[in-house]
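Office hours follow-up: a student asked to see two folded examples consecutively, so here they are.
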Amino acid sequence: MSNTVQNNFQSIWNQILNNIKDNNIFDEPVFHSYIKKSLLYNVSDDLAVIEVPYITDKNFFIQNIDEFNRLLSDAFDRDIKSQIVLTSEISTIKKEEKKDFIFEYGNKILDQYTFDNFIQGQSNQQSFAAAYGCAYSKEKSFFNPLFIYGNSGLGKTHLLHAICNYLKDNRPEIKYLYIDGNDFISLIINSLKEKNTDELIENIIQLDYLLIDDIQHLAKTNQSQELFFNIYNKLKSNGKQIILTSDVYPSELKNINDRIISRFTSGLSVSITSPEFETAVSILQKKLEGRNKEINISEDALYYIAHKFNEDVRKLEGALNELLFKAIIYNPPVIDEQFTIEMFKENPIINQNDELTIKKIKKEVCNYYNITQKQIESKSRTADIANARHIAIYLSRELLDTPFKRIGSEFGNRDHSTIMTSYDKISRLLKEKKVYKDVISDIKRRLGLVA
């Protein structure tokens, strides 16, 4: 509770005390003995908390509770009931308030996000296994921290909610906090304003699990980073589990202190990438479960959506919802591929062939060097294949600003340091040899980026 709010309550209480004194509602000796030292600690909805120093004062207020309820109701112009507490009991109330305050920001868990309905595929298998392991393991910490990274809409938030739902159902003794990165910063900023950061830290380090979604928002303030660093170290030293998500690999986070990044990379970092075709189809089929009688949709229609909208799960689900809505309007006998193509032909979001992706870059580089995609992703060090791989990696980074770790996952799950080496090599050769400039220009032309 803020000092301003408390001051407002006390101002009202002082008016009530003056009313009691001026109108002789209680005898003067009684007023000075039992009432004068009282405080109005809080008013929430229809409950007022009155603070008194001694047990004799508390007994007096309880005996005359109806009168104090009337005075408070008149002052607030609504029915108010009173709770009388001793000053010695206030510290306990403050601790509970701080916990409630924290959970106002966090633990907004969605029940529908579980491990059971998370569709697994090559693009997310590792992140699923790590998340499930963290929830299931009864060791003090499984992978600490667990850092899940990938573009928006690929399932990171689903996994964090799934962890919390698993803990709630299977390990009810576990104390956890799920919080969005922006809300975490708001929580910290508020504690700094109220000068109660020590209480905030004390409450958070009592947790068994701290889950922060989109930790990249920590870059917004240096004070938030300092406080997070303190919380992180205390949780880690106590063997508590920390689980974080971000849109990029830890070492590629911008404007975050190096000592924090070094701690992120000390645990396990796993990526989620765009769902491959088979996984995309499974996601669509999962969305249609139990609706077979009301929706007549062909496999070809699902395949079309899976092929065109597999950049992320949200686009897949959005495209399916749009198609089903249009089917209600036009009422086709069956939602087949032809109907699906017709419904999306003028929709700009379907035109993903015009979007530049790593897959498209790899395809054009492979065509240019007359090699296969399997070869460019292989471990082969043959000059032509290795050179093509380096150039595709360079273009993926240069044209899309894709994190090195994510590029590595698209090129045979290579380590991000290997990808950085490839990028640096082509960057150097472009300065030294004109032939590389010509090759890059030719491939950009094939990609439709230059005339």
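And the second, which I mentioned at the end of office hours:
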Amino acid sequence: MKFCTKCGKEVIEEAQFCTNCGNNLREESTAKPKIDPPVDLDATNPSLDYDINSVTSESKSNENVSGHLKLSKKNKIVMAAFAVLIILLITTVKVGNSLSDPGKLVTRFQQDIKTNNTSDLENILCSNDTRLNVDSKSISPLLSYFKSKPTYLTQVMQDLNADVMSPKDISSLTAKSDHTLTLARVGKSFFIFPKYKINIKPSFIDIKTTVKDVSFSINKTVMGKSDADNSTKEFGPYMPGTYSILANYKNKYITLSKPYLVDLIATNGVANISVFDDMTYLNITSDKPDADIFVNGKNVNVKVKNASHFGPIDSSSKIYATCKVDGKTLTSDEYLATTDDKDAYLSFEGASNTINDIHAQLDNLLYYYASNIAQAVNNGTPSYIDAYVAYGSSLYNTQHSYISKTYDSGIRENYIDSKIINYNINDDNKSGTITSSESYTIFHTNGSETPSTSSYIYGFKYDASIGYQLTSISKAK
């Protein structure tokens, strides 16, 4: 049934105009219907069959349908948001489970070692000792150790895989833990899932020294120095691995430098080394208390009489003393220090015996020379002194001329005595000078006698085939 929207009169379905009011029904069919409030044009008009209640009921029905449509859209939004939340929750659970899988962490660690991925190792390694710096640079000693000892890496992987079944809590690990690397729980991810890392047990070095002020460096980085004699000092913590410890010590007697190789993994985290344990103090004495002490060929400007607490020195030190005797430098027997010795005696007996022997030879040389020159003058035979004077030397030429001229002049000599009043022997023991005192009686041609005592300075040298001979002469002042 169709009604005119203008007057409300019933029209046939095919009508294009209202037969009552002439309203163009074609325009109304293309436009959104607009229902005006019903107009009572003819209340008595029985042909006006317009049901207000039916229109109101239809309108309310349309409103209810629209309301139901709006509620459906809200439900769709809520349902979509809920679906997204579920997806996010499922994704978070999967990611969380993946990140908290200790087995994957161990596999990741093994791959990082193989590829030398230090930046990723920095993320999965840690230490419960906050003093130990764990970064891509500091872990290099550990990586080097793995590469040099692949069997040790195999053992580490076995231990970590065993830890996967029952990871330790990081707070329970101490320096006394069995393993250098341990899979440990370090907290939670997303406040729910357990978080794991591989904990590194820190390593320490205990260095014992016998003397104070020994300085140490590790892989060319300064560590510190000893604080007292006969003390032990701890250094660390360090990343596990192999290190070179260089110990240095210097005093006015010696300069020492010695490397020590330390394996901080084989020692299970605490390495004990003893440095310069052969160093000691000595009480030095000698038969020449005023002698000067030398250590390793260097004069340390300490006399024997002042060396009651000498040192410290080590067992590689060679100690001797020197002193001047008759212008010659005498050297004591050499002493090699040992750890157990507390006393050192520097003997000059050998040197004294040598110098005494030289003295005896020079004493004999002067005696035979002085007595034979008198005979040479008295006989006019210069060859009497040839065994005692170096051939071709200035003394040889001078005395040969003197002997001949004196003999020809008629003067004769009688040897009375000669002695050496001063020695000056060079350190080579093969040359030097002696100062003599010689006494003669001079017989003149007129028959008179004159006693004569003179002092001369003779030069001498050593000839291996002959012995000591005189080389020069000058009048002593």
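Two things to take away from it. Residues 52-99 form the longest helix (48 residues). Confidence is low (pLDDT under 50) at residues 31-36, 39-50, 52-57, 65-69.
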